[in-house]
Each structure stands twice: as structure tokens, then as C-alpha cells.
Design a protein that fits this description.
With 222 residues, this protein is of the alpha/beta class. Helix content is 28%, strand content 27%.
Length: 222
């Protein structure tokens, strides 16, 4: 895996503090996730005017009405997805590309769908500059997944759906997981769906708040 280029010590120190105080102390146990979060330069995935707050314990606006998730939520969702090197993963909602970079840093091959062309172009540029060549950005309706690349070992959805899209469950391989926020536009539950040989199981993990998932099997654009 290609590592990020040298960055100022201030960002490295903030990233280390983020891992120790926001992640490890709050129960993130996966060493692979902690190492990825400690490596990927989050500040390069936010606007230049927000780089000084990139490692704060909060989501940040990235333009087009979208956000980059709070570091803890990125780590928690990644840990719940339970991916490893060589996993074949679908991400719905590319945003600026940070979550995809975390998955790729762990060693997954990532197909990520973004409905907004401007964000997809931005994410593609950042990911290429950082050497994440196993991340493939596609413009489209993420609620429908990407059936031509299915089945997936994991599907991670970074926007809130009113219900779990059937297209996504149909593209999940046996033994795979979907991590997705489900609920209304104001507050949701983060859920984990697992596919076993005998069918699907579903578990609610925690309350959360995400931007709405827009598409044919999500919310309608307003």
C-alpha cells in the first residue's frame, strides 16, 4: 500500500492525538483500523480553510451540502465492517474520499459510488495524489449498488437510508456485512446486516446522524 507523503509535524501530532484520545480510549480495538486512521492524512480530504480542524472530534463540511464524518464514526463503521487485506468492498457515498482511503489503507479493493460529479472528481484527484490506486470512484446512484462488481465482502454506506436498499443486500456475498445508518432525516440507527448461508441477520449498534441517502431506493432529492 502506498503511504502518504511527508506532512508537517503539526498534522502528524494531531492525527496521533486523534487516534489515542478519540478512538483507542473510546473502544476502537482493531489494530488495522487504528493504524489506518493514524496514517491517512485526513486534513487533505477537507477544504483548505478547515485543515486546522481536520482532526477534531466532529464532522466537517466538504461542499455540495455534504460532510466528512467524525473520526470516531469512520473508525467505528470500518471496524464493524470487519474487512481485511484483499477484501472486495463497496462504499456508497464517496464524499471527499476519506473513508475509501481508510478501507484501502487496510488493504481492501474499494469500489465507491458518488452521486455528485464534483465530489467524485475531487475524491478521485486526492486519492490518486496519495497513491490509493485500489479505490475506483464511480458516479451514479449508490442505492442501486454496483452489480457488475458484486458480490462484495463488505458494503459501507455513509448516508442515512429510510430502509435498507434491497439492491445492496442482493449484492452482498455470503459472510459479508453491510454497515448502514437507517432512520429518518433527523436521527438514525447504525445497523449491521450480515449474510449467512441461511439468510440475513440485522443488528442495531448505536444512534447516529448522517446526511440523507438520495436515490431510487433511498430518499428522494428535494
Amino acid at each position: 500500500m502506498s503511504r502518504s507523503p511527508d506532512i508537517p509535524n503539526a498534522h502528524a501530532e494531531r492525527r496521533h492525538a486523534m487516534v489515542e484520545h478519540q478512538l483507542r480510549r473510546r473502544g476502537i480495538q482493531s489494530q488495522a483500523v487504528l493504524e489506518a486512521m493514524g496514517t491517512v492524512p485526513r486534513h487533505l480530504f477537507v477544504p483548505a480553510t478547515a485543515q486546522h480542524t481536520a482532526y477534531d472530534d466532529s464532522p466537517l463540511h466538504i461542499g455540495q451540502g455534504q460532510t466528512i464524518s467524525q473520526p470516531y464514526m469512520v473508525a467505528r463503521m470500518t471496524e464493524l465492517l470487519n474487512v481485511e487485506a484483499g477484501s472486495h468492498v463497496l462504499e456508497v457515498g464517496t464524499g471527499s474520499g476519506y473513508q475509501a482511503a481508510i478501507l484501502a489503507e487496510i488493504g481492501a479493493e474499494v469500489w465507491t459510488i458518488e452521486r455528485l460529479p464534483e465530489l467524485a472528481a475531487m475524491a478521485t484527484s486526492i486519492l490518486r495524489q496519495l497513491g490509493y490506486h485500489k479505490v475506483h470512484v464511480v458516479v451514479g446512484d449508490g442505492t442501486l449498488g454496483l452489480p457488475e462488481q458484486a458480490p462484495y465482502d463488505g458494503i459501507l454506506v455513509t448516508a442515512a437510508a429510510p430502509s435498507i436498499p434491497p439492491s445492496l443486500t442482493s449484492q452482498l456475498g455470503v459472510g459479508g456485512r453491510i454497515v448502514i445508518p437507517v432512520g429518518d432525516r433527523d436521527i438514525q440507527e447504525l445497523r449491521v446486516v450480515k449474510r449467512t448461508a441461511s439468510g440475513l441477520t440485522e443488528t442495531s449498534v448505536l444512534d447516529c446522524r448522517f446526511v440523507p441517502l438520495i436515490g431510487a431506493e433511498g430518499y428522494k432529492d428535494t
